[in-house]
Write a structure and sequence with these properties.
Layout: E1 2-4, H1 7-14, E2 23-25, E3 31-32, E4 54-55, E5 61-62, E6 65-66, H2 71-81, E7 87-89, H3 95-108, E8 114-116, H4 124-132, H5 139-166, H6 177-193, E9 198-207, E10 216-224, E11 227-228, H7 251-260, E12 266-278, H8 286-297, H9 301-313, H10 329-343, H11 379-382, H12 388-403, E13 409-421, E14 427-439, E15 473-485, H13 494-504, H14 509-521, E16 525-528, E17 531-534, H15 536-548, H16 555-569, H17 575-584, H18 600-607, H19 613-616, E18 618-623, E19 629-635, E20 638-646, E21 649-654, H20 666-673, E22 680-684, E23 691-697, E24 700-706, E25 717-719, H21 731-738, E26 742-746, E27 753-759, E28 762-767, E29 770-773, H22 779-782, H23 785-793, E30 808-812, E31 819-825, E32 828-832, E33 837-839, H24 851-864, H25 872-877, H26 887-890, H27 892-900, H28 903-906, H29 915-921, H30 924-927, H31 930-947, H32 952-957
Parallel strand pairs: 1-2, 1-7, 7-8
Antiparallel strand pairs: 3-6, 4-5, 9-10, 9-15, 10-11, 10-14, 12-13, 12-15, 13-14, 16-17, 18-19, 19-20, 20-21, 22-23, 23-24, 24-25, 26-27, 27-28, 28-29, 30-31, 31-32, 32-33
Helix pairs in contact: 3-5, 5-16, 5-17, 6-14, 6-15, 8-13, 9-12, 13-14
Amino acid sequence: MVIVESPAKAKKIASFLGSEFLVESSRGHIRDLPRGAADVPAKYKGQSWARLGVDVENNFEPLYLVTADKKSTVSELKDALKEVDELYLATDGDREGEAIAWHLMETLKPKVPVRRMVFHEITESAIQAAAANPRDLDQDLVDAQETRRILDRLYGYEVSPVLWKKVMPKLSAGRVQSVATRIVVQRERERIKFVPASYWDISATMDAGAQADPRRFGARLVSVDGAKIATGRDFGSDGRLRNADVRPLDEQEARRLAGALADAQLSVSSVEEKPYTRRPYAPFMTSTLQQEASRKLRFSADRTMRTAQRLYENGYITYMRTDSTTLSETALSAARNQARDLYGDDHLSPQPRQYNRKVKNAQEAHEAIRPAGDTFRTPGQVANELDADGFKLYELIWQRTIASQMADAKGTTLSVRITGTAAGGEECTFAASGRTITFPGFLKAYVESVDSEAGGVADDAESRLPRLAQDQPITAAELEPDGHSTNPPARYTEASLVKALEELGIGRPSTYASIISTVQERGYVWKKGSALVPSWVAFAVVGLMEQHFGRLVDYDFTAALEDELDRIAEGRQQRTKWLSGFYFGGEVGPDDSIGRAGGLKKLVGSSVEQIDAREVNSIPMFTDDENRTVYVRVGRYGPYLERPLGDDESQRANLPDDLPPDELTAQIAEKLFATPMEGRSLGTDPESGHEVLAKEGRFGPYVTEVLPEGDKSKPRTGSLLKSMSLDTVTLEDALKLLSLPRVVGTDPDSGEEITAQNGRYGPYLKRGTDSRSLETEEQIFTVTLDEAKKLYAQPKQRGRRAAAAPLRELGDEPDTGKPLVIKDGRFGPYVTDGETNASLRKGDDVESLSMDRATELIQERRAKAPPKKKSAQSKSSSSKSAPAKSASAKSASAKSTSAKGAASKSSASKSTASKSGSKSTSGKSTAKSGTSAKSGTSAKSGTSAKSTASKSSTAKTNGSKSTSSRSTGARSKSAKSDETASSQS
């Protein structure tokens, strides 16, 4: 019996093994540490360590429990084990896969021989080679993963309660999660402190004469009288010049110089031409795949990994959790042969290329991510078998792998200086630069995207200059004074955050996607477009951690922890000794480690009482006109503004949830203070004599009345209508809202009162328990009894009412061609293509939402949607077959039936699969189809990077999506760390 993690993987592997093998799925992790007190068995509840799930007094023995949803799976696996004579544990080949294999062995307690079967791609040759060469379980790898698991539990369950007590309930801390949050917060702090500087220069359009090609080109003023003109890079984050030797230009001087140069004689003062060479990019590893898919495909890290998991499990790519950029000899040969066939010998590198990494904690353990197999299938050949996301990601991986073995791109760069004397006597120098690609090499197959947030120029971008000679006269056709302003550092995107974590050596490639998802789910980070924006809660948590647990969020310390875990994996460090030192204190780790400072338990225990909750939850922002410090306070129910007024009094105001921290200015603060938390007084209700206030609440703006002191009755309240705003609502408006529900009249037939009300889902009529929707909010106040009777006389609409007009039409989605519109729903605005609805997120604005962002939201929602139910026929064909290890399974008749029958093709993870069945599904017939010829032809024409794009429409509409099962991956919900679970303890 072979056990793998996921049903999709089991089905694929079963097709490559003969009838002597039974392939089963564990459906991910089968057991884990208890997630909360309720999970702890009764016999352990009284133990001091029970809340941790780790017996810290007894060699850090973990308490592992089979999770409730896996008990039936474990029972099925135990039953199947009774029918076999050997067990192969074929979980993934990394630390976590090794740990899953160990958990299976510990839980199933097999009485048959157990071996470890390891492979890094799911192809027939790889699976059969792995089955023929099993090994023993690697206990060092298991120890390393279990240490990581226990470490994360201790970290999360010791530190998180401090956050609950001092900041806000239900928060969580984590070894990598907290550091990732700190990185995002630190960038926002830089943006808050940033002081923009303005500077000017002159943009020129030069004319080289009628014989030049191109005749006109752009240039920019770079020096005056030998002094360099200040540019953005010459200013610091405080808005001041870093270098006193440069000359800043203001608007007045720039305009004066432009005028003085209008009739100046200009000539070429220098020409410098250099050869340009660009090497190909390395094949993908996990982090670079996430970065490039984010830039090029607008995929989130989570979406990229889910798609890659499906491609791997269905045999299209190699294992996708790796930090190696090396290629096997087989892969090198396949990539080079395909590059030669598609682009010719002149575009192939002279020698095979291998890429070595220069990043902290790199583990060159596995191969790079590449197309699976000894020969690579082109995107055109797999288009009909993949869904849209799968096709896009496979194409990206295929292009990058082929390009890695191609020749360097070559060209020339040209730098020109043009000098002239202005009317005022100043010698002014302009600069122009150009780049020409003379041989595209690998750029013919693949060009890496540029991070739009950080700027930059694509490697295939060209800017041509004419052939110029020294002292050649030049005419300035246009001289335009040009003003600029320095910009704060760009916020992190998912791609740039992954890059930062990798460069700092923090975390592992397999954890990046889950960490980025966790910091968003916990409310520490939210997205504004593609940018990651920290919340005020994140500021408070990071501030607390920096002040009181500085080592735990120190970048170097966190990277050093990875080194120590690597030592355990290599067998150079004993797991229990290291955990004891880390938790209780001891001689483990570098000089400034947690262990040498007394251990985690002492650090947390000794710090709690010293933490001033008000201090850590107070973020000073700026001073107002009266020199009073304005603070953002993080309270139990969210952040708010506060400033002192004297005599122990203060003024408070609510903070909008969607206001990024760096956009909170003194002007915005004054506006918020103008509508204080106690509300804006609208006047007095003439009937009751009560004051009426307009207030901003957690669920939106509303009006309410102030009851006399001692009055225990509930004050009337009313939410503002969509047509109203807090700034403009009047007393008359408020009294109308407070009068609701309005009695329309009495139904003469039933004698029941009919009222008009404003509810969560909009305006409606109510008669007893029977309700009817109204079309507009205005009807609440105008609908008559006769109109109400007519509405009730009509049958109640069980389905939807006529669709309201969309708030905005965006155009057709590039991938599907379906029109995208933004509509207003009961839970707020959402974007839809008619089939899939995706709510707009915090930071998304109806008026400014781009097509790219709308497509990202729709595609993420599609990816998370549950798979469509299979038809009765498909259910029956994939139903469980009995474990076939009986005598009949080995008989000739059984083998022949298995080999010939179509059932072997559709058998699920528990079916026995024949080799002949595997051949019919391996896709060889597709490889012979005309798509490969088309791909090759277009590739040779120089448009290969886009040659397979025409196939994407096939991939989206073809009905054969079953080959790339919607399984999110057996490990996507596994307990990789306690960074996502600690708040539930």
